[in-house]
Write a structure and sequence with these properties.
- The chain has 220 residues and is α/β, with parallel strands linked by helices.
- It has one domain: Ribonuclease Z/Hydroxyacylglutathione hydrolase-like (Metallo-beta-lactamase, Chain A).
- The chain contains 5 helices and 13 strands.
- It has a 7-stranded mixed beta sheet. Strands 7-8-9-10-11-12 form a 6-stranded mixed beta sheet, covered by helices on one side.
- Helix 4 packs parallel to helix 5.
- The longest helix is centred in the C-terminal third of the chain and has 11 residues.
- The chain is globular and about 45 Å long.
- The mean pLDDT is 97.
Length: 220
């Protein structure tokens, strides 16, 4: 399974000749992404409606390809009725050939500076299972009780009340049993990441982690 990270929390996963794209957003968006990276997508997954995870124009372009299947929450679909969404919710299972995708719960944080239209009422994550590895993409979430298990977890670390910060992300990741942690939610100028705290907390919990640069790939 090959994983490539893009700005903020966008991840391209390539298991068993499939191309799965998660959360293509508006941060650091340029034409080369659609031309060189975000093409021939088999499955497109979006966790919630915020523009740093859900760029409607990009999604519209990607889903012009008739083979692309787009899965997201009812809140995203309601916000973007022009998009060809297949609505899923936590607990659902998507099966495409030999790939199983479990839709997970997520709890997006709230801070009082959020305007009403920015409040997230429905956030989801995904566990992508190719029969050999389980990759858990938590989506934007704070800590919550769960029993999700995986080999690799992509988890937000910026904090600021909207997602987990380094301390709780380390504890959450450890509970999943992941052998590798990939920090995400890294590129918003509004929410800069404290990388020293990431290192301190992840190492304290004995976690193996890898911070991927934008457009950097890793094989798992």
């Amino acid at each position: 399974m090959k994983i490539t990270r893009f700005a903020q929390s966008c991840i391209l996963i390539e298991p068993k000749e499939k191309r799965i794209l998660v959360d293509p957003g508006s941060l650091q968006l340029d034409d080369s992404l659609l031309r060189d990276y975000w093409k021939d997508i088999d499955i497109l997954l979006v966790t919630h409606k915020h523009s740093d995870h859900c760029n409607a124009g990009v999604i519209k372009d990607i889903t012009k390809d008739p083979k692309t299947k787009f899965y997201t929450s009812s809140e995203v679909a309601k916000e973007n009725p022009e998009l060809p969404a297949n609505i899923v919710k936590a607990g659902a299972v998507i099966e495409e050939d030999n790939i199983k995708i479990e839709v997970t719960n997520a709890v997006h944080g709230y801070i009082p500076t959020m305007t009403p239209e920015k409040i997230i009422r429905e956030s989801i994550g995904f566990i992508i299972d190719d029969g050999e590895k389980r990759l858990y993409i938590t989506g934007d979430t704070i800590c919550f009780e769960n029993g999700y298990k995986c080999d690799v977890v992509c988890i937000p670390v910026s904090g600021y009340g909207v997602v987990m910060g380094p301390f709780e992300a380390a504890l959450f990741a450890k509970e999943t049993g992941a052998r590798l942690v990939i920090p995400v939610h890294l590129d918003s100028p509004k929410y800069p990441v404290d990388y020293d705290m990431v290192k301190e907390n992840f190492e304290k919990e004995g976690l193996k982690y890898r911070v991927l640069k934008i457009k950097e790939s890793i094989e798992i």
